[in-house]
User: Fold these one by one.
Assistant:
Number 1:
Amino acid sequence: MTDQPTAGRAAAAPRATVYGYPRQGQHRELKKAIEGYWKGRVSAEGLREAAAGLRRSNWRQLAEAGLGEVPTGDFSYYDHMLDTSVMVGAIPARHREAVQNDPLDGYFAMARGTQDVAPLEMTKWFDTNYHYLVPELGPDTVFAADSAKQVAELGEALALGLDARPVLVGPVTYLLLAKPAPGVDPGFEPLTLLDRLLPVYAEVLADLRAAGAGWVQLDEPALVQDRTPAELNAAARAYRELGALADRPRLLAASYFDRLGEALPVLAKAPIDGLGLDFTGPGAANLADLAAVGGLPGKRLIAGVVDGRNIWINDFEKSLSTLGTLLGLADRVDVAASCSLLHVPLDATAEPDIDPRIARWLAFARQKTAEITVLARGLARGTASIAAELAANRADLASRANSPITRDPAVRERAAAVTDADGARSQPYPQRTAAQRERLDLPPLPTTTIGSFPQTDDLRAARAALRAGRIDAAGYEQRMEAAVAEIIAFQEEAGLDVLVHGEPERNDMVQYFAEQLTGYLATRQGWVQSYGTRYVRPPILAGDISRPAPMTVRWTSYAQSLTSRPVKGMLTGPVTMLAWSFVRDDQPPADTARQVALALRDEVTDLEAAGTAVIQVDEPALRETLPLRAADRPAYLHWATQAFRLTTAAVRPDTQIHTHMCYAEFGDIVQAIDDLDADVISLEAARSHMQVAGELADHGYPREAGPGVYDIHSPRVPDTTEVTALLRKGLAAIPADRLWVNPDCGLKTRGWPETKESLDHLVAAARQLRAELA
Ligand code: GLN
Ligand code: ZN
């Protein structure tokens, strides 16, 4: 913290800060400690010590990097929304006893469930790939303040001599992200509990003030979504009341992931002391909006100018220009990432495999922290004080803009030449389906699976052996071929109609393709929290994308050589490839999607040429990537459907295109699903008792569909009567000649015994109904 302004001048001089930092530690120590605790190998004390050590080392790193104020309370054993439920005492009735007996075990029971009680539901945190535990509230919910965790963590940071700012999920966002508890009227609106919740926040704020907090940050990302006037009024009331508290720390309301829009004047006028705004991506609109409301006179602004959810270096000149404008709009301007750095990996220098030409374009959490401090210094002391950093940044950006990696003329020419016709099948569905029926000769209610079969320890061990050099590529391929042969033999025996090769060779449905495409990078240590102790390594779309060689043809062809039944080729679609990767920020995502689509289109063409009659292109992420604001959705859905169609449209009429999506709620995108023009779609439906079948019918969906009849999320085996009953529901909505019979999703997380039994039942149910129909 060498060249930071001294405390006396701090009120005016711009400082650097962040809202949160990756929790897991350099070597995912937190994951190991927590999972060790679950297995009884680590004591509660051991876990607490490991966690405290990680927090300390994070704060030290941040302070050494030059952060003027560190965040506290952003750490979590599992999830910050769950921590908030604990903080406000919203413990579901079914978990209360466990929490009373042992708060730590009760906490994990809420997160993961136990033999006897179900966990809280988990869902995506806005449009990120982080998942939070959904608060369960009802008219009888009684809140009670428990500020212990927040107070303790603030104390730890203050004890290190740091200036610290507790970060809490704000009350409005907390309620807007909650849902009615089981048994409560589904129409119940948690926001109606605001008046009961505010006194609890008041108590926590008073506790934090007493513990030494000068500032407290309340995160309100839910206010960047479209909000009703009633919801905006609730936000206004919340901050009027919190602002009016007598004994409170100074309050800052932070927003991120998009522009605040109508909520900006609400928060700007609230009697609180500051605002955090996102100035990256669609958040850039905050700049003009802030000027339009007359800025934040007398208040502190935290300017999120460094993208907190992507991994590219910042454009210093652009950020300094934004910051310069903002100086005129607030009393004090601090520099930050746009959101918590939770959403990016820890350290780009831990990636020795990445081409050094690309490495200089990357900024993970550590590098972003350094960028933020440079910008704060530039803002405080003038650009001359950061001349060297500015020059280096300019050179790095230029090297990216002019690199053959980001500018591949062949890829660009091809993408520029794409026309609407490239996204259109040569014949409409009625003619295609006739040709497909003739070629495939399937029974009514054809049976199939979604692609993957169990990923056994044996398969994972083979991959580890290949990586470690204990077996060579030929040895590995032999093992995978043996697995494919076993999977084909099983499906023939089970009597399935359209077979799959089973995806034994795929570590992950995105990474597998990323590793084979030029311009796409995998990382070694780029772990990002998905939920709890589950971390993923999203690949990086770094350059122009091309496909040097076929990626899947050998596996599908090998599988097809073993059977006379059709084997379905299996690809991950362009939208999902983008959604589960870090996407380049130097061109619109639509352009990147088009490049990926063209590479996949070649794969589709090669599969078809190799004799594949059925090709599935999975798009489980189509809905989750939907922009937060409704106004931005049509443009997204347009490029997303175009990319899918570009991937799939080149095939002959008698080649059948399938797609797959995992979710059950798709009412808001059913038109987009229709626009994909896939011949067959499979969807998750077992848990919702085939509700999607009815929704497809209501929409008038004209093609074939396979609403799932086997819930693959649990080891439970559905019996034949259960599957038959679901199929009857399906038949009530979709005619027999357009209804497919399949599980909800892939089987990779299942074991073999339950998979075999369940698929036997699925085939038996289809046969029974065929007999009835005949
Ligand atoms: N084909 C993939 C599988 O079966 C689809 C997975 C998914 O939709 N998430 O595993
Ligand atoms: Zn799925």
Note: The longest helix spans residues 44-65.
Number 2:
Amino acid sequence: MSDVAANREGDTPENEESQLNAKRAKCDVTDGQGDHGEGEPACKRNILSGFVTSQILNDSAREKKIFVHGKLDNQEAVVIMEKTPIREENLAEIFSGSRLELDMRNDIYSTYRLQAPAHLSEIKTTVVCPATENHVKKYRRQETFLVEEREDDYGSITLPYVEKLCLGVQWVYNILEKKAESERVVYEDQDPEVGFILLPDFKWDQKQTDDLYLIAIVNKRNIKSLRDLTSEHLPLLQNIFQKGQEVILERYKLPASKLRVYLHYQPSYYHLHVHFTRLSYDAPGCGVERAHLLADVIQNLQFKCDYYRSATLYFPLSAEHGLLNKFKEAGRL
Ligand code: M7G
């Protein structure tokens, strides 16, 4: 482990989070100004030119995605790169404006290497910097284990872990306070009790609706996850469900029957949010072991007001996830 990461591990989560926020704020200021005094607009500057790769955390030839751990300006960083889908509206330009080199020809079959115009060969890139050890673990390919969490396990194992060690939610507060991504907000209900902000998940580049992915982030700050929900939250959940679907129909022309609306348990970020993805898109984390349909959540709470407080819940955790160790230490795995 690098010194930087080792030092961070020794920090308290509060210290770590405030240090990260200070660094992020610094980045936001410089990156938001448009000009860096070097005559180059921030949005055009290649901050990755100095990236030093230390390891590949995960990659998938099928999904055309790679997760890289390394250093950026001497800070730990994770870079996620993903080739974007070929869109119908670009076909004419790809056919007419590309360089084509023949690989092989056989009977009626031929394969080529096609070099599309630069603006049509973009790679969607996400940078997490400074990245914590938990980010590195989150993105590293690992074996996963199914964990059983009984009601009492939540109080004795999960909650203490969540309160101390999970990933920070400053990015969520930045969205709620319009300090970040305000131009990306698709819908906002400002009600303090049942309100939320709907915006594109950063996994979605919004270029096509085939992989539509939005998240609804609730205004209330005291609901960590599905576990905290009771029938008292039904108006909030129903509001998100109904308005989210209406807005997506109006804006993206996708009816409710084409959407998968769900919550993760465990989430990575413990501020309640709901995922809206296109049903035909096999979104990461939409499997039965982690995703709980919002429609089912609403029904379960209608049947039993404290359903999620008392239920035994199952979820997958990766081998290096800190919570998995806590379950092991408690003899629950
Ligand atoms: P989750 O269930 O807590 O964790 O969902 P997961 O990442 O393991 O699925 C959080 C969701 O928020 C994910 O779908 C993330 O892609 C998304 N997300 C995370 N961050 C840090 C951001 C961000 O800064 N902006 C936006 N728009 N989405 C984010």
Note: Residues 85-121 form one domain.
